[in-house]
Amino acid sequence: AARAADGGEGACTSVGRLSWEYWLFALSMVLSRALDLRLNDESQLAIVPLVDMLNHTRGEGDSCRVRFDSGSQSFELVAAAHVEEGIELHICYGPKGNEELLACYGFALPQNNHDRLSLPLPMAPADEPPMVTMQKLGMLPSTFLKGLRHSDNGSKIASLEIVWDDHLKKCAHLSPEMLLLLRLSTLDPSELSELPHVFEGHPASPASEARAWAQLAAICNSALSSAEQAEFKKENSDGPVTVLSSSVRELAMAAGEFAKRRAAEA
Questions:
Q1: Of residues 245, 1, 259, 251, the one with CA closest to residue 102
Q2: How many other β-carbons are positioned within 10 Å of the β-carbon of residue 253?
Q3: What is the Cα–Cα distance from 254 to 263, expressed in whole angstroms?
Q4: Beta strands in the chain (DSSP E)
Q5: pLDDT tens, residue by residue, 183-218
Q6: Nearest 10 degrees: CA dihedral of 165, 90, 31, 77?
Q7: From the CB of residue 45, how many other CB atoms can be counted at a distance below 10 Å?
Q8: DSSP state letter for 162
Q9: CA-to-CA distance for 44 and 29, rounded, in angstroms?
Q10: How much is the pLDDT for 241?
Q11: Among 19, 65, 83, 224, whose CB has the most other CB atoms within 10 angstroms?
Q12: Which is nearest to 32 in space by CA: 116, 95, 101, 89?
C-alpha cells in the first residue's frame, strides 16, 4: 500500500488492483501487529518478527517490554521480572478500551479499567441561530470541531467520552474538556454572556448545570438500553462482542448514576 501511494517499485498501476478488501486486510495486519517504539530517539511504528506474536497482559509489572538498542541496531525483549522456563511471555499493548482492543486485535477484556464510552452529544439543534452556534463553539479547539457531525435532522453532534475514574472504583469520570462540551451543549442563548466563565471551568448557572447533567443522564440511559438489547441478542455467548456490550452497559450505568447525582446537587 505504501509503495502504491508513493508510486515506487511494485506499485499498482490501477486503483482496481488495490481493492478495498486488500487495503483493509493490510491495514488490519499493521494495526494488530505494529508496536510504537523509540527508534533512534524517534517514536515510530515497527513490526518486529516473533514479538508481534506475543499476547497482551493488563499489568506492565508482569509483562515484557520491547526496546531498540541503537548501538547494535537490534530489538530486545526485556522481562520485568524473572521468568521461569516454559512460561508464556506477554507484552502490554497499552491502556486501550475494549472497543479499540476488539477493532484492532479481535478480543475484549471483562472489567477493563481502560474502557471508554463514546456518547452522541447534541451540540446545536437544527433551528438554533447560526450566530449562537458560532459563539458557543467558536472557542473550542480544532480537534473538537473536526469531530462534529450532522444528524439526519440537521443538528450538530459531538462525541462525548466517558472513562472510568482512576481513583474511585466503579465510578465514571469526565475530563475537563468533556465537561466543557457537556456544559456548552445545553447553554441557553440568554446565557451566552457567561461563556468566558464556562471556558474557565465553571457552570453558566445552576439551571444550566442541572440541564447539562440531566442531558447526560438521558444519553446514558439510551446507551444502556442499546447495550442491554445487544446483550440479549447475544445471550448464552461469551465472545468478545458480548464482552464489549457488557462493558458498555457497565460504564453507561455508572455514568448515568454519576450524572443523576450531579443533577441533584445542581
A1: 245
A2: 18
A3: 14
A4: 35-39, 42-46, 55-56, 64-69, 74-79, 90-91, 116-124, 149-150, 156-164, 172-173
A5: 988 888 888 889 888 989 999 999 999 999 999 999
A6: 120
A7: 12
A8: E
A9: 16
A10: 73
A11: 224
A12: 101
Cell of 36: 510504537
For the cut 80, the answer to whether the pLDDT of residue 117 exceeds it is: yes
Cell numbers linked to 125: 439543534
Vertex 146 angle, CA 144 and 147, to 5°: 65
Confidence (pLDDT) at 216: 92
CA–CA distance, 117 with 219 (Å, rounded to integer): 11
Radius of gyration of the chain (CA): 23
Query: Residue 246 burial (CB < 10 Å; 0-12/13-18/19+)?
Result: buried
Q: Tell me if the pTM is above 0.90.
A: no
CA distance 214 to 222: 13
Kindly report the three-state secondary structure assignment for every residue of 44-100: EEECCCCHHHCEECCCHHHCEEEEEECCCCEEEEEECCCCCCCCCCEECCCCCCHHH
Please give the helix or strand (H or E) that residue 214 lies within, else none. helix 206-233
pLDDT attached to residue 238: 62
Backbone φ and ψ of 167, nearest 5°: -105, -30
- The span from the CA of 248 to the CA of 137, in Å, is 28
pLDDT tens per residue, range 18-76: 788 888 888 888 888 888 887 777 888 888 888 888 999 887 666 888 888 888 888 88
From residue 103, how far is each of 26, 141, 232 by CA, in Å?
A: 14, 27, 22
